[in-house]
Amino acid sequence: MHGATGLESALWRAVAAYRGLALCYAAVMIAMNSGGYARPAGGWAVLGVMTAWTAYAYRAYGSPRRRGPALPAADLAVAAGCVLATAWVETEANIAAGRPTLPVSWVAAAVLSWAVVHGRRGGVAAALVLGAADVLVHVIAGTAGDMGSTTFDGVVLLLLVGLVVGHVVRLARESEARLARAVELEAATRERERLARRIHDSVLQVLAMVQRRGGELGGEAAELGRLAGEQEAALRSLIGSRPRVPEAGASSGAAAAGGAEVDLRSLLTGHASPSVTVSTPATEVPLPAHAAREVEAAVAAALDNVRRHCGPGARAWVLLEDGPAGVTVSVRDDGPGIPAGRLEEAAAAGRLGVAQSIRGRVADLGGDVVIVTGEGEGTEIEMTVPRPGTPPRGASGG
């Protein structure tokens, strides 16, 4: 069931208003036709039931806690019962002449309720039940052969009401959800901009000063300045990235379980620094949260290898490419390259940085890793990860 949003409240108020007005019309029709009923007291009894149910439905549908499956079912049962009571109250001649059922248009309120709760399919299902009850009145009265266009027109009208109202309600709910996401995104953006201003006025300025002074002093201070510069670049990239709001329907439980999608760009750009250039597409690159974190961890392991084995002056480039079948992340450096057989020797010696931190992670995601290197030519590690539903590829190395 949907929550008690402003849209929900407005929909139920509209249904309640229609139900009340339709009851007044039914009361007028019963008062006008009661003299010609086979059982006039029965007509007033049906009106009493309709009045009591209208009052109860107004209170019940007004409380979100009562809008369980039983309430619309009872609503439909009462409406169908009032229709069937026509066969007992009316005369056979009046039914054959096409006189409307006792509740007339009041029964459409049940169709509206089902359309609001269950959408188009629910509205159409309720209309079919009431249409069948209308036809059954003629069967019980023995006038099935005298059914005119009035009966079928009423059934068709109920079907259109259920279909159209159910469709409009679905569109309205989707619009409300999109508006809520837009408001959430705007609030997140404003908060990010506020934090960015405060960070810029304090932390970023301090890091920039440490980088500048460390370069002037040299020695160990220069290394400290270099690290401060890397952190400054990473922090600037983080506060400058656009926040991503989960799609409607993505629950917090799904997010916690790694089922929600995140933008891989925002994870990779956090590794940008004066010595690391990160290039990503202009549009979002969504991946399931678990897969995105594993790819980011593999990239972090590759960059850590560059820092440890290529020297402090080495540069690295990270390139993210998005395709219909999956994503490809390349990490390239200008270091001395990996001598032939070095990776196998490292794995045999128990150093599994490339074998597990990179190849292992990507293989677990159904992807593969290709390493292109040569002495004095740098190294490029290309990681390809398929999207969910895409046939996995076996891991390979180059």
How would you characterize this protein structure?
This protein has 2 domains: 6-178; 263-398, Histidine kinase-like ATPase, C-terminal domain (Heat Shock Protein 90). Helix content is 62%, strand content 10%. It has helices at 6-33, 40-61, 70-84, 86-89, 92-96, 108-141, 149-201, 203-217, 220-240, 252-256, 264-268, 289-309, 342-348, 353-364, and strands at 261-263, 276-279, 286-288, 316-322, 326-333, 368-373, 379-386. A hairpin with a 5-residue loop joins β6 and β7 (379-386). α1 packs parallel to α6, α8 packs antiparallel against α9 and α12 (289-309) runs antiparallel to α14. The longest helix is centred in the middle third of the chain and has 53 residues, at 149-201. The relative contact order is 0.06. Residues 379-398 are annotated as: Disordered. Residues 294-387 form the Histidine kinase/HSP90-like ATPase domain.
Give a quick rundown of the structure.
This protein is of the alpha+beta class. Helices cover 62% and strands 10% of the residues. The protein folds into two domains: 6-178; 263-398, 2-Layer Sandwich (Heat Shock Protein 90), CATH 3.30.565.
